[in-house]
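Before going further, learn to read the protein records used in this course. Taken together, the tokens spell out the fold as the letters spell out the chain. A record is reproduced here so that you can trace the correspondence yourselves:

***
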Amino acid sequence: MRTATAAAILSLLVGLGCSRQRAGGPSKVPVTVARADQRAIPYEIIATGTVEPRQTAAVQSQVTGVLTHVAFREGDEVAAGQPLFQIDPRPFEAALEQARAMLARDVAQARNAELDARRYADLVKQDYVTQQDYDSRRANAEALRAAAQADSAAVANAALNVEYAAIRAPIAGRTGRLLVREGNLVRANAADPLVVINQIRPILVRFAVPEHHLADIERYRHNRLPVLVSQSKADTAFREGLLTFVDNAVDTATGTVLLKAEFPNRDGALWPGEFLNVRLELYVEEKALAVPAQAVLTGQQGTYVFAINADGTARQQPVTVERTAGAYAIIADGLKPGDEVVTDGQLRLVSGAAVDVKGVADPARDAGSDR
């Protein structure tokens, strides 16, 4: 008896719930919307780039000797001309003194031979000596003068070796791993450098773009095109540089052309060898019809959005997307300024479904986060 009563009550409650649902009609789908708006949107070419130093110097020794002192630490920033290494200078200083002594000796002998040749020049006029004697004295003076010139060159070379014993930074930049330690014998022009210096302020980012963009790049290149880079697609912190190089040939293997941009990199955030997301901005389209990119869906018939009708229902609206720019999709056809499109909740929608607008997306804020 009790079981039958409970079943009857449950049946009554279910019937009441169903009748209430039929009376209230279909439930509305909660959505977030945004308005299609005309605004200034940059035309950008997206690529992946690699950071490379503006200059690289492999520091080598030009003399052979024992390394006595290293004047920096691995990874230090160094200035151009800053002392880096000291090779034992004593052998080179001794060679310099010897060269100077030989120069002084030969200069004295050359001077004496010149005076002797002048005396014989007067004597040969008076027939006190033969012409052959005079020619011999003159030849000896010229030979000693040439020897003195050779000694002068030897002195300059010895002085240069003394200077080479103190190795200085050829460029400003950051030092890498130290490859030779104090006490080791350093050989002139060895295969391995003592250290490698990379100039990172300013620094370059190299990237390749498809060749069909080349005409547009050349058309707008005179405007000093800005280039924006970030560590990842989701990163909102961009660093801005300028396009400085366009290669003079297309890579036939990849169908791309190589470009380079220069960045001040004052804080040293960009690092050689690092991969970056790159945006090359060609121009700004002043009245681009834009909607948030998440409003655009792709189906079997192509791209579409859910637009909001005046009666509060949704309709599936085919659209033609010209391009994307960060958080925006630029619409070429299918919408007009002021149309409302759904940006969140589309998966539960069908054409004609009633919607309940729970929020309004801010396209300007979404796009601003990309820059």
In short: Residues 103 and 151 are 5 Å apart (CA to CA).
